[in-house]
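Most newcomers find our protein records easier to grasp once they have seen one. There is nothing in a record beyond a sequence line and a structure line. Getting from the letters to the tokens is the skill we practise here. An example says more than a description, so a record of this kind follows:
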Amino acid sequence: MTALRALVLSAVLEATLLTLAIAQVPDSTTADSIPLYRLEGITVAVSRSPSDLNRLPYAVGLVGSTQIQGLEATVSLDESLLAVPGVLVNNRYNFALGNRISIRGFGSRAQFGVRGIRLIQDGIPLSLPDGQAQLNNIDLSAAGRIEVIRGPASALYGNAAGGVISIETGPAPDVRLRPQLSVLGGSFGEGRLYQKYDLQLSGRDGRFDYLGHLGYFQTDGYRLHSEARSTLFNTRWRYRPDSQSQLTLLLNYAAAPQAENPSSLDSSLARAKPDTARDIVLPPDQCPASPGFGGCQDLGEESRQGQAGLAYQRRFGLAHELSLMGYGVFRHLDNRIPFRLIELDRWAAGWRTMYRFAPPGSRLEGLTLGLDLDHQTDDRIEFFRDDTGIGDVRLDQDELVTALGGFALAELLLAPPLGLNLSLRYDRVRFQAKDRLISPDDPDDSGTRVLDQWSPMVGIRYPHARWLNLYGNVGRSFQTPTTTELTDTLGGFNQNLEPERSINYELGLKGTVASRLSYSLALFRVEIEDQLIGSEASGSERVYFSNAGSSVNRGAEVGFSTLLAEGITLMAAYTYSDFRFRDFQMGGEDFSGNALPGVPPHQLHARLHYDAAGPSGTLKVTAVDEFFVDNANLDRDDGYAVIDLRLGYTVGLPRIEARAFVGVNNLLNTRYNSSVVVNATAGRYYEPAPGRNLYLGLRLTGS
């Protein structure tokens, strides 16, 4: 903790000096669609019923369009979500794996993608029925807001123990056509560049509005063998037949024909040559004279993913509302990992039905009933491979997952202003493997698993005043193993693996003071049983899972946003995490009492934002405490503090608004690791971050 205090004090001192150097007296402000320093009356939908953010009896975070886009590069979720307490986002600088995201410890062990957290974009779940989510098609350049539930999301969304991240495309402007073009270029130094182009068309005509975005991103990567290219298309079309109903069509397509994987490094290599990569990740023509075990295998992936959704909402009078939504998803993936090539074709579809009854003037403030049905089919083939090429098929099977969930949510007014929220959800997830690789030496490994859970939650709220809203809740949550985690060493499914189950307790308060400051405080305790723990099989880098332990996660989350002066806003988010194994033995070792690896005990993020009619700027400070990276608590990642700077200037021209901006990341050129791989083999835990790097951008918006 002493080291963290020194880092924080140093970072804050540097930030203060920089602020004094660049600050100007503001003349006027540019209105934000969501003034985060004044959150009374702000409605969020992530709770599955429109609710005032400050009156919800659990922790909810909100990020507005200025924080998402503004002066940011819109390349990674850490740009936005670090401002939400309790949310840990590690930028791997590895587009083959994506960000490492965790909420209250859930998701911290994910080797790739996102686990234990439900991701949603415009109502379409990015998290599949088995609980796994990919980040390829998230559209930050068109996002208008991000809403985050921290805590037992299973009571509302099913297979997600840590929380929910919901991303919504921004609203259409009140003009027939508004074009927007953004061009951005950046450098990690030594000729390693990246570029991003975005074209957006949006508008409104009577009962019809639309928003379409086309983006292209390309990077040489910071590290050796980390190049990536991707194209993203995202559009939303909305029609309102009358004042009581609306119909919305959503289309999204993402293609990533190149995403190289530089893998992780051991401590000595991460310190001496942070921009390098392991030998095994390189293509054979770049292989050194004496490669390590397994030779050079050109690790990386190519993917294509598309999804479409159709949503209908209608109000009946003042008390009734019906919402219907159907969606479909396809994904093709070629993934080259150590000693294996995975070819995956995925099809998924789902249906949402939700009815809400909210009679005016009643003690029953709202009753919401919902039914979710999701199905995914994975055609998975895995080949043996090494530096000589592709070998025999080692796994060939269809994996089918069907998830059915129904829920009820009641919002009651007990004795004004005291309120009670009750929710109950039942989930049934059916996994089926159909083995296609059958021979006299390889018997049929087909199998079926059915996992289910009841998830109740009780929340009490006491909105004493705008400046003081108290709440408490208790609820159950769960997360099933993914199809990858369920896979047995021989194929098929592990018949002994069970869901990870949790009981969650939370107390908190939040409010808005004098329309100039919003704050939140949450204290939580999570008791986890049948914890899903991975271990590597002998002679392989493949991870297999078992229900190996239980743990207790305790912590505190503090956030605030305040208007210091006209146009100047200060935001801060602090997270304290005390996560420990309660009972955990594996491989003849007893890890009971050890800290859970991968989660820092202390994390602080603060940003000072200035916005006027012309100039704007943001100064960000992030400080992270040291933390363990293995179950035995023998190795750890050092703490660090980094400063990022954003500066911009907006000029109003005839029929167009031009904003030029520059961003400098890691201003003080701090050497640190931006992410880790928990319990990695041979001590290769560390994924280094770049030193000082910058980008330049220009955004042109039609009037």
